[in-house]
Design a protein that fits this description.
Radius of gyration: 14 Å
Shape: globular
Largest sheet: 3 strands, mixed
Strand content: 5-15%
Length: about 100
């Protein structure tokens, strides 16, 4: 989320994530962050919880990996590029079983 993010991401931007299990959101009003209680109330990962920057009041550039049938993530992290290797390891460890 940058000051220049005045509109939803382009098709090119969205195409960077190739996994059909991934969900990407454009939330102009930051309703998801408000519903989740903002960064102070983000869920923590059981295995990896690496949040490398202050998000202020809005959750952004954040990833969570949930094991099958779980309401708790095994991994949370931000920014995504800093934890991408851990994300890939989590997803490859359990095949297509993550949601």
């Amino acid at each position: 989320m940058l000051p220049t993010d005045w509109g939803p991401p382009s098709t090119a931007g969205l195409s960077r994530v190739h996994d059909a299990r991934a969900a990407q959101f454009w939330d102009k009003q930051h309703l998801l962050s408000k519903t989740l209680g903002g960064p102070a109330h983000m869920v923590k990962g059981d295995v990896v919880n690496d949040i490398a920057f202050d998000m202020g009041n809005v959750i952004w550039d954040f990833v969570a990996v949930y094991p099958p049938q779980s309401d708790r993530p095994s991994l949370t992290g931000a920014p995504v590029f800093k934890v991408i290797d851990e994300v890939r390891a989590q997803l490859s460890h359990s095949g297509d079983n993550h949601r």
